[in-house]
Design goal:
The complex is a heterodimer of chains A (about 240) and B (about 475). Chain A is built from nine helices and seven strands, in the order βαβαβαβααβαβαβαα. By secondary structure, chain A is of the alpha/beta class. Chain A has a single domain (about 1-240), classed as NAD(P)-binding Rossmann-like Domain (Rossmann fold, 3-Layer(aba) Sandwich), CATH 3.40.50.720. Chain A has a seven-stranded parallel sheet with strand order 3-2-1-4-5-6-7, sandwiched between helices. Chain A is globular. The N and C termini of chain A lie far apart (about 45 Å). Chain B has about 475 residues and is of the alpha+beta class. Chain B has a domain at about 200-420: Alpha-Beta Plaits (2-Layer Sandwich). Helix content of chain B is about 25%, strand content about 25%. Chain B has 14 helices and 19 strands. The chains are: A alpha/beta (about 240), B alpha+beta (about 475).
């Protein structure tokens, strides 16, 4: 199996890559910080003995995306799956008042993903097999005062994946949306008011198990499904006054 | 927070988290601003912020205050744990400092390799192991872990990275080995793993009646076996003072294994590990339960000259109970490990065991081991016998340990910094004769004393 990991330097991406390596998958670790990507590729090779290649990529550099997918496929000798892990909170406060920052957040989390997934989906569809796993966020389930720019990008990504899943279903291509809760990584480290945080090992295990079961949409961990159902059910006239 | 401006380059200062930290003994506890980099590039920014004192922390398995920095900064390196290359011909592993011995065992034991030296727990990081210059049951044969380290890269306060080895930056190498994190941050290193044929230890279990018998048996078995240690009963006194159970052995060759495990010699049967889920009440460990444990431990062991056990109970008996330190309750405990020069070991051991026995402060766990010599400027081991004890933190304990210090010092011995939480600065200086040499190396690597810890301030290792 040949898997492309997009945004390979986060702890969850790394742990997921190790999971795929444990079943013998060869990996292409694409990341913005290539030196870091190489450390991770080396780590996977030493631990698992599979081939892991590091390559550079930038979610915002749309023009490079087709070439990236092609290069990964060539270097791996084929492509069976794409795991999209990149995304960033950006500067939430700045994004509320600075259009440039807001658009950068959208680009990192949504339009960059749309560009890459469109190209990757076409490749998988043409070969008639494969899978796409995308890390979304509970922030995309409802716009909140604190991080609605990031949340809107993730929410849009969820909608995009719903349509993509429907389109690719006849080609038997699995498109899995991971609606991820808070994980103990640098995104939440030192942030006040972060609840229900789980270790990245647990998140990666749950994502990998859901992928094995060919799930469409999975909340990670699953307790976020009822929590977000409640959050979504709060009428807007009350929700707009909520402090979170 | 903002690691991804549209230019996509990490720029801003990473975020810290205010955390109450302690060592494994859970005494003392103090607040620090903790950074936990996940990418290599973040480290430079953390080190470059010179406004606060900084100390590196690995898995937090030093017992006392070595990886604490009260009201200052701590950088937790556990997420920088990538293995970068491995050569099965030479056994040389190149890895980041946050890799633990546990990970190395999981990855490499099935391939026939084991860490060259392991302490009593597998949950320590490589960086912490060098900073403490850890030793294990094989010290008399293998010396400390640093002996098997070919080089390491050290980030200095200036942000500059220096490769240190026996040839390159020689002084900085020996000041960092055992230097308790105060010369800089160990980033990555190359270390030679030991080749093993099985995951089993073949050796002997020997019950001995007193101190003299214990020492006689160490002298004999250390010529035959690479690993040895004794669980010593520090409750008994008089004629049976120092009665103990010696465990000695070596990795078994494949041929030495019984037929039923010879086909999978490198995979010991996995068992689930019990956990101590919460702090036990303070009274759980009292002189009666300690006495019962010490008696029982001695009583259940029988002499065996053909013992075969998995490496786990042999090297890491306590790792099989997660969070075992909680048996000491909320008050925490203090580890006390000392070593005497060979000529003074017998007298020192008897004197110390008598003092413990007389004080009624029985140690739950007490381990006796014979050391070879050691090189690092602040390394703990010296040729002689070492005794490791732990005591719950109770009234009068610190005064009692000061008395033990005086007894150890008088005989030219010393106390282990990685386990210490309470030694006095003048005692420390008298015990570590190469301190001035170390201080010169530290001053040249870290002229503004950026790297400092609760331990270094307590022991007045920082320049005045």
């Amino acid at each position: 199996m040949k898997v492309l990991i997009l945004g390979g330097t986060s702890p969850i991406a790394r742990l997921l890559a190790i999971k795929f390596a444990s079943i013998g998958a060869h990996l292409y670790i694409a990341s913005r910080d290539q030196a870091e990507g190489e450390r991770i590729a080396n780590d996977i090779q030493v631990r698992s003995g599979v081939k892991a290649i590091a390559g550079k990529f930038d979610a915002a550099d749309f023009a490079s995306h087709a070439e990236l997918i092609e290069r990964a496929s060539q270097d791996l000798g084929g492509l069976d799956g794409v795991v999209l892990c990149f995304g960033t909170l950006g500067d939430e406060d700045k994004a509320q008042v600075d259009a440039h920052e807001a658009l950068a957040t959208i680009q990192q989390n949504f339009t960059g993903a749309v560009s890459l997934l469109t190209i990757a989906a076409q490749k998988l569809e043409s070969q008639g097999s494969g899978f796409i796993v995308v890390i979304g966020s509970v922030a995309g389930d409802r716009g909140r005062k604190r991080n609605y720019v990031y949340g809107s990008a993730k929410g849009a990504l969820h909608l995009f994946l719903q349509g993509l899943r429907a389109r690719l279903s006849k080609s038997k291509i699995q498109v899995m949306t991971v609606i991820l809760g808070t994980v103990d990584t640098r995104m939440t480290w030192g942030r006040e008011g972060t609840l229900f945080t789980v270790p990245p090992e647990r998140a990666a295990n749950l994502i990998f198990e859901a992928w094995r079961k060919k799930r469409d949409v999975v909340y990670v961990p699953s307790f976020w499904r009822p929590i977000m159902a409640v959050v979504r059910a709060i009428p807007e006239r009350f929700f707009k006054h909520a402090s979170f | 927070m903002n690691d991804a401006g549209s230019n996509g380059v990490a720029t801003s200062m990473p975020v810290s988290k205010r955390t109450a930290l302690s060592g494994w003994g859970r005494y003392p506890i103090c607040e620090s601003d903790v950074f936990r980099p996940e990418k290599f590039a973040e480290l430079s920014a953390i080190v470059a912020a010179n406004s606060h004192k900084l100390i590196a922390r690995g898995a937090g398995r030093a017992y006392g205050d070595a990886a604490l920095n009260s009201e200052n900064r701590v950088v937790d390196l556990q997420r920088l744990n990538r293995m970068l290359s491995f050569d099965p011909e030479t056994g040389i592993l190149h890895a980041e400092a946050g890799v633990t011995l546990d990970e190395i065992i999981r990855v490499f034991l099935p391939r026939g390799f084991f860490p060259p030296v392991v302490p009593g727990t597998r949950f320590v990081t490589l960086g912490g192991s060098i900073a403490a210059d850890i030793h294990g049951k094989s010290h008399h044969r293998d010396s400390s872990l640093a002996t098997h380290v070919l080089w390491f890269d050290l980030m200095l306060a200036s942000g500059e990275v220096r490769r240190c080895s026996r040839e390159e930056n020689h002084d900085l190498f020996w000041a960092t080995v055992g230097g308790i994190g105060l010369t800089g941050i160990i980033l990555e290193l190359a270390m030679r793993l030991r080749r093993v044929e099985s995951a089993y230890i073949k050796g002997e279990i020997i019950r001995v009646a007193n101190v003299d018998e214990a020492m006689e048996n160490f002298e004999r078995t250390d010529r035959e076996y690479g690993c040895s240690a004794a669980w010593i009963d520090c409750v008994s006194s008089k004629g049976s003072l120092g009665r103990s159970v010696l465990h000695v052995g070596d990795f078994a060759s494949r041929d030495a294994l019984p037929a039923n495990i010879r086909n999978e010699p490198l995979v010991p049967k996995e068992k689930g590990s019990p956990t101590v889920p919460f702090n036990l009440p303070n009274f759980a460990l009292n002189s009666l339960s300690v006495r019962a444990f010490n008696y029982g431990y001695y009583a259940i062991h029988r002499n065996q000259n053909q013992a075969l056990v998995s490496y786990e109970p042999f090297f890491f008996p306590l790792d099989s109970i997660h969070n075992w330190s909680r048996i000491y309750g909320k008050r925490g405990f203090v580890q006390y490990q000392c070593v005497w020069p060979l000529a003074e070991s017998r007298a020192g051991l008897i004197e110390t065991l008598e003092a413990i026995s007389a004080s009624g402060r029985a140690s739950f766990l007490a381990v006796l081991k014979k050391f070879g010599a050691q090189e690092g400027m602040l390394s703990f081991p010296m040729a002689g016998y070492t005794l490791a004890l732990d005591f719950p933190v109770t009234d009068g304990l610190l005064e009692f340990l000061d008395r033990l210090d005086a007894m150890v010092l008088k005989r030219g011995g010393r106390v282990y910094l990685a386990k210490d939480a309470r030694m006095r600065p003048d005692t420390f200086r008298a015990m570590y004769p190469k301190f001035e040499e170390w201080r010169a190396a530290k001053a040249s690597a870290d002229p503004n004393n950026h790297f400092s810890s609760t331990l270094s301030r307590r022991l007045q290792m920082d320049p005045a």
